[in-house]
Design brief:
Two copies of one chain form a homodimer.
Chain A lengths: L2 E6 L10 H12 L6 E5 L17 E4 L2 E4 L1 H11 L11 H29 L6 H12 L3 H4 L3 H11 L1 H9 L10 H16 L11 H14 L7 H6 L1
Parallel strand pairs in A: 1-2
Antiparallel strand pairs in A: 1-3, 3-4
Helix pairs in contact in A: 1-2, 1-8, 3-6, 3-8
C-alpha cells in the first residue's frame, strides 16, 4: 500500500510553511506511519489535486482512501489505526478545541507578524496569486495590513495567556505526554518559523522550551522546516 | 461526615454570582456528593474563613479535610472519590485548559459588561470594599472602566469563536457528555447571569442552547441563580 501526502510548499519543494501540512505530518509520525511520497503543491496549482474533488491541501492518499483537511486526516488516522498510539490523549474533544483555538485565535494573532515575510518566501510564480487573494480578504495591501507591528505583538502576548497557564501546569498541552492538542498549536508556531526569519517568540520566552520539545519529537521532525531531506535522513 | 461549602454571596445569602462557587457546586453535583451546609461569605468578611489559612472562597470542608480554590477542589474530589463519575471526561489537562481559558480570556471579556450591575447587586455593606479594590485595580472608576460597551461587546464576540466552533462539533465542550471543561466555562456565563439583568448572550444566540442544557443538569442547579431554595427544592 502506498501512502502519499499532498502538501503546500513555499519557495521550494522542501519549504513547507503550511500549519495544516505540519499537523498531518505530526499525526502520521505519532501513529508511526511512514509517508512514501510527499507531493509538493503550490498555491495556484489546482490541477494536480483536482482528483480529490476540492482545492485544498493537505490531502492524504492512504492506499485506496483519499482524505483532505488536516482535522479529517487526524480523525481518519485515529479510526483506521486504532492499534497505534492514540492521537487524542483521552479526549478527541480536547484536540478539537485546541485545533479550533489555533485556527480562530492563535493564527489570526500570528499571521500579521509574518505575512510580509511569507509573501517574500513563497515561489515567484505563486506571489501574484497569494497577494491578490490575501489583499482581497484584507481590503488593503499586505504591507498596510501588517504595518502596526507593536499592536499585533501586544495582541499575541494577550492571546498566549491560556497556553502559558497550561504549560506551567503540564509538560505538554495534552498533559503528561504530547498528542494532537500539542501538534495543532505547535503547527501554528511552526508556520511562523517557516514563514519568517523574525521569531514571534523571544529567545528567552518560556514557551520555547515546549516548542523545542515538540520540534525534537520523531527524530527532529519540526527541525525539517526548510530542508525536507533533513527529516528524511533523521 | 459533614460537608460544608463556604461561598461568596452577593446581595443576599441565596445570591451567588461567583463563578468559582458555581464550579465547586457543579463539581460536587457531578460527583453526586451532597452539601450539608452552604456558608455565605461576603467580600469584606475575612474572619469567618481565617481557619483556612487564606482569604479566598470557595472553601470546601469535607469531613476533616479543608480545600480552597475551585480547581484544587475539583482535583481533590476527583482523587478522593474515584468511584464516582469522573469530572474530567478522559483528560484533566483539557479541564485545566478550559479553566484557564475561562479565567484569562472569557472572564476579562465578560467582566466589563456586567461590573456596574454587579456592584449594584451586592450587599450594601460590601459595596465600599468592592468599589475600592476594583477601582485600585482598574486605575479609574468602575463606571469609566465599563463605559465603552460596544467595544467590549465586539471583543466578546471575537473571544467566543473557539467555543462556538467546539459546540458546533460536539453537544458539550467536553464532547458527548458534560464534564468539568463545561462547568468551568459555564460558570463564567452564570456569573454574568447572576450579576446583571442584561444578558451577555442574545436570546437567539446558539450558545444559549448549551448554557440552558448545563443549567438544567442536576435538577436545574444553574437555575438556582438568585434563589438558593429553588435548587434545594428541585
Amino acid at each position: 500500500m502506498t501512502r502519499k501526502l499532498y502538501e503546500r510548499v513555499g519557495k521550494q519543494d522542501d519549504h513547507r510553511p503550511s500549519p495544516f501540512s505540519w499537523r498531518a505530518r505530526y499525526a502520521l509520525a505519532h501513529k508511526g506511519l511512514e509517508i512514501d511520497e510527499h507531493v509538493p503543491i503550490k498555491f495556484h496549482d489546482k490541477e494536480t489535486i483536482a482528483f480529490s474533488g476540492q482545492g485544498l491541501v493537505p490531502i492524504l492518499v492512504d492506499g485506496a482512501k483519499t482524505v483532505h483537511d488536516s482535522w479529517a486526516i487526524a480523525t481518519y488516522l485515529e479510526d483506521s489505526y486504532p492499534d497505534k498510539p492514540s492521537l487524542f490523549g483521552g479526549s478527541q474533544a480536547f484536540a478539537h478545541f485546541m485545533n479550533g483555538w489555533a485556527d480562530t485565535v492563535l493564527m489570526p494573532a500570528i499571521f500579521p507578524l509574518v505575512v510580509v515575510d511569507l509573501h517574500a518566501n513563497i515561489a515567484e510564480d505563486d506571489k501574484a496569486y497569494f497577494r491578490t487573494t490575501r489583499e482581497k480578504r484584507f481590503g488593503r495591501t499586505i504591507e498596510s495590513f501588517a504595518a502596526d507591528r507593536p499592536a499585533f505583538e501586544a495582541n499575541l502576548a494577550k492571546v498566549l495567556a491560556p497556553l502559558r497557564a497550561q504549560l506551567k501546569a503540564y509538560p505538554y498541552v495534552s498533559g503528561a505526554e504530547p498528542a494532537y492538542a500539542d501538534y495543532a498549536v505547535f503547527s501554528t508556531f511552526q508556520f511562523a518559523r517557516c514563514a519568517s526569519p523574525t521569531p514571534v517568540l523571544a529567545a528567552d520566552d518560556s514557551l520555547r522550551d515546549w516548542t523545542d520539545r515538540i520540534s525534537a519529537l520523531f527524530g527532529g521532525l519540526g527541525a525539517s522546516c526548510l530542508r525536507l531531506e533533513e527529516a528524511d535522513a533523521a
